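Worked example 2:
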Amino acid sequence: MTDLERESLPDMPFHTIVEQMVAGIYVIQDDRFAYCNATWAGIIGYTVQEAIGMSLAQVVPADFLEVVRSRIRARLSGDPPSMHFITRGLHRNGQVRLIEVHGSRILYRGHPAVMGVGVDVTERVHNEEELKRSREQLQALAAYTANKLEEQRLAMARDIHDVLGGMLTSIKMDATRIQRRAENPELQSLTQGLIALTQQTIDTVKQISEALRPSALDHLDLSVALANELHAFTRRSGVQHVLDTDAKTLRLLPRHTTAVYRIFQEGLTNVSRHSKARNVGVTLRVEDLQLRLELHDDGCGFDPAAPGGSALGLLSMRERAREIGGELQIRSAPGQGTRLSLRAPLH
């Protein structure tokens, strides 16, 4: 800005500044627009000359007119003297525009009036609504996918355990009968090896079936399933564990049980992959008709706000918690371990 511009700025007429603003300025008095700048007139599709003197009924949809009038009356009465909200305006072409306004009570030419600043936010609001719909659709898709995956796991676990396990058991029984009748030492040795291999296969089938869908989830209760998973986790990783629970007879809805167990399982997976922990503690409680599950480790921790803090595993856990009406919190810091807390209603 030049010295000449600085010197002339204080003398610039106030209405010139208002007319150059990118926000719409208006004054409503006696249910009509007593003043507006070009930006406000453009928002509703008119020139300034056309807009001044127009009634509210001409620029507000009929089904929203009383709402606008009540808000104006509230500001004129001073309760409250100022408001900030999104209103609906009627464009000259008949389209409804969404306008964010901030209006306040003033005296205009000696009489009470409402002066406001308005910005057309139609596109922004529509984009936000579309983003919200997309997010809801993604959440529904994630829930559908998770449920279908659990159904497939359950079906596969049953088929592996019942069908394949039954076939292997029959093979073992036949091999045992052959061994008993065989007189040839070589044949006895071969059948003995076949029996041992079949038993190893049966044990492997059981492990695969349990990995797909722990039988404790369906036949016992959640605390037993967590205890079994913790013992297996310690055998695999060497990380020591402590389970503290007073909910040994806790039975939840099958969908809730599965969600809690998968969140817990994913938490253990993160401990083994990333934390470098030596110990992990798990607490399972029932408080005020809510299930509380906490998992904490003494590992390296991480910064949840850092890039990568919203990894797919964490997003999956949060989505499972949301699906059952629960809330998942993850607290961590570098060098201070990680604490995962889940709260969910029992019913």
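The CA atoms of residues 191 and 222 lie 41 Å apart. The chain has a mean pLDDT of 84.
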